[in-house]
Amino acid sequence: MKLAADPGKRWTEKFVLAYTPVWIAAVVLVMATRAFTHWGDVGHMALGLGLCLPLWIVPLFWGPDRERPFAERHIWRFNLWIGLYSFLQCYFGSALFFDVLHMEYHFPVTWIVNRTPLFLYFMTVAYFSTYYVAMSVLWRTLAPKNSTTVRAILLCVLGYAVAFAETAGMANDWLRDYFSYRDKWFVLLWGSACYGTVFVLSMPFVFRMNESPDDKPGRLGRLAGEVLAVNMAALIAYEGWALVLK
């Protein structure tokens, strides 16, 4: 696997990949033991924050570019991009999953924002961090730089694969009473294509950040505007999928 050449970005990729088994193990343990059924709002929020915060806290103490201003460090720019995009997608993008793909949440919580339990907003940050790093490493390793067509096809495959893997992993028997789809196989086939659009549209923007050691970070305002623009593109794509699948 080919990691980034830029030291800060390479460290970020190593850190996220090393942290990934930790959050996956925590999620599997919680699902297998069904401990969450007795937690309520505070316990669920503790889980969400507990999975998300290490991505922000650990870089305070480690990393090759700790002496640089926060706005110039790759890990902080990456976290800002992923954090904003995760929250926007949870708030605005979930409508397609509720109304078209018939997703249902029945977690024992009352802290719910726009039909999605609040703790899932924070868990999504951990999920998305892993997804984008894994896709970036694979895209850099497998995609030939001199073939735009092959790179685009591989990007679509990666986006679909990530969406399929999350759907298959979460719609399981352990969570059946708390998280489910009316037709799991329909969602795996077509819902993965819808959800994968989120990653296909956004991955190039995440990938290009500090891809070369000579890249200079732009303003944080521009980064935030980029996230908003990509999120809007994803929502427009969702509307197209809704017309096709309804």
Task: Please give the structural blueprint.
Blueprint: H1 7-33, H2 40-52, H3 54-57, H4 74-99, E1 103-105, E2 112-113, E3 116-117, H5 118-142, H6 148-170, E4 179-181, H7 184-208, H8 220-245
Helix pairs in contact: 1-5, 2-5, 4-5, 4-8, 5-6, 5-7, 6-7, 7-8
Q: Could you explain how this protein is built, in words?
A:
This protein is mainly alpha-helical. The protein has one domain (7-245). The chain contains eight helices and four strands. It has helices at residues 7-33, 40-52, 54-57, 74-99, 118-142, 148-170, 184-208, 220-245, and strands spanning 103-105, 112-113, 116-117, 179-181. The protein has a two-stranded antiparallel sheet with strand order 1-4. The protein has a two-stranded antiparallel ribbon with strand order 2-3. Helix 1 (7-33) crosses helix 5. The chain is globular and about 50 Å long.
The geometry reads as globular
DSSP helix fraction:
55-70%
Total domain count: 1
Q: Tally the helices: what do you get?
A: 8
According to DSSP, the number of beta strands is 4
Q: Give the end-to-end Cα distance, rounded to a whole number of Å.
A: 40 Å
Mean pLDDT: 92
Described by strand count, sense and barrel closure, the largest sheet is: 2 strands, antiparallel
Strand order of the largest sheet: 1-4
What would you report as the Rg, rounded to the nearest angstrom? Answer: 18 Å
Unreliable stretches, pLDDT < 50, 5 or more residues?
A: none
SSE sequence, one letter per element = HHHHEEEHHEHH
Report the structural category. mainly alpha
Share of β-strand residues: under 5%
